[in-house]
Amino acid sequence: LYAIYPLAVQQSAMFYPTAFQVASISAAFAFMAGGPHFATGAADAAEGVGDEEFVHRTLYPVLKTVVEHYRTGTRFNIGMDQDGLIQAGSRGLQLTWMDAKVGDWVVTPRRGKPVEINGLWYNALRLLSGLSKRFGRPDPYAELAGRTRESFEKVFWNPDRECLFDVVTNEGRD
User: Fold this and answer.
1) What's the CA gap between 127 and 145, in Å, rounded?
2) Alpha-carbon distance 97 to 55, whole Å?
3) CA distance 76 to 91
4) What are the beta bridge partners of residue 36?
5) DSSP code string of 108-137
6) Regarding beta strands 167-169 and 113-114, do their DSSP bridges make them parallel or antiparallel, or are they unpaired?
């Protein structure tokens, strides 16, 4: 716990550490699903904690911050595109759960709009919309979730194979 505490204090723009270097007590932050995954976990906790004040004063503002960071952009070119979907990546980085890298070679490059990240993003928006309504707060998240869902269905659906594309880029869909 004491070794990880300094990492938590860093709050590396809404990223969870993906690798720890024990000798130097440092970490690598390059996992673009961290914020949306956190939103899901926090919303689950909000349902189970039974402390409305804690949820309203602690979890709700953090969830808003997570969504705002992804909406406006974070490190590693992660941010929301005009269609409401999350895009990310730079050459040489592996930012999703498929993070195999050998030297400078990224084994599974997934620059662009990964499908699972956008599913998590949509879920985070819907969760935050629900909490906004629950606390009588303004809810810009419902409209954004609707736009995200519409774009998701249009961009990721592969009618020829009746499945979803894995990653969508300006160069094509895979």
Assistant:
1) 10
2) 29
3) 10
4) none
5) S---BEEHHHHHHHHHHHHHHHHHHHHTT-
6) antiparallel
For 2-22, b where at least 16 C-beta lie within 10 A, e where not — what string? eeeeebeeeebebbbbeeeee
3-state secondary structure of 10: helix
Cβ contact 115:156 at 8 Å: yes
Residues 57, 61: Cα–Cα separation, whole Å: 7
Q: What sign for the dihedral angle of Cα 43, 47, 49, 54?
A: positive
pTM of the model: 0.81
**Token pair 């890298």: residue:** 101
pLDDT at 66: 85
Of residues 61, 37, 173, 171, the one with CA closest to residue 116:
37
CA distance 60 to 137: 10
Partners of 88 in the β-ladder: 112
DSSP H or E segment with residue 11:
none
C-alpha distance from residue 16 to each of 12, 42, 45, 49, 67 (Å): 8, 14, 18, 23, 15
pLDDT tens per residue, range 81-115: 999 999 987 777 777 777 677 888 877 778 899 99
